Amino acid sequence: MATAPSQRARVRRAPARADYERATIDAILDEALVAHLGFVIDGQPYVIPTLHARIGDDVYLHGAASSRMVTMLGAGIPACLTVTLVDGLVLARSAFHHSMNYRSAVVLGHARYVEGPQERAAALEAFTDRLIPGRWEEVRPPTRQELKGTRVLAMSLTEASAKVRTGDPVDDADDYALDVWAGTVPLTVEPGVPVPDARLRDGIAPSAAVTDWAAGAARLQTKRNA
Description:
Layout: E1 18-19, H1 22-31, E2 35-41, E3 44-50, E4 53-55, E5 58-64, H2 68-74, E6 78-91, E7 99-113, H3 117-131, H4 144-148, E8 150-156, E9 159-165, E10 183-186, H5 208-225
Antiparallel strand pairs: 1-9, 2-3, 2-6, 4-5, 5-8, 6-7, 6-10, 7-8, 7-9
């Protein structure tokens, strides 16, 4: 769908599964809880799992101000951020054609330090509400010391692509006659019952933000599995 924003962002393997629409890319980034950030420092490649949050045309990251990763990314080294959502195992009649149904997004480019106080505050709020929407308003905000020890980075979504696989296994024509079960096994991430902190004072129940999010996530998975 649409066209690749650049040659290096173009999906080459199974290009029919590519999707360059921003709506698709945004939806995948917004649903995924964990991103993997790839970069090279001193000739050595690294891939680091990290929390992310998207606001408009940027995806935000954060880390300790003293982190080498944060320092090098802020200096402008090339970076690649990826997220993957696995929706199911695809079981074919042959070993060769086993696969997964998935939605993935790749963002290429350079990170920049977020210096403006308003943008920085919005990003920090987005990180918290990315986990549980509305949580930022329920908790203590960062102290000046905590803010001093944290750097926020942003990557533009200018060079981004998505890749999606859905549906049944695709077997060789002769294999459809085999007496082997084939199909898909859905995989989901579902919220469980909130477990209180061992040091939580008596009489404090989960907030509406927590319970509403858990119920909404459960409904979404039920709808997706239907």
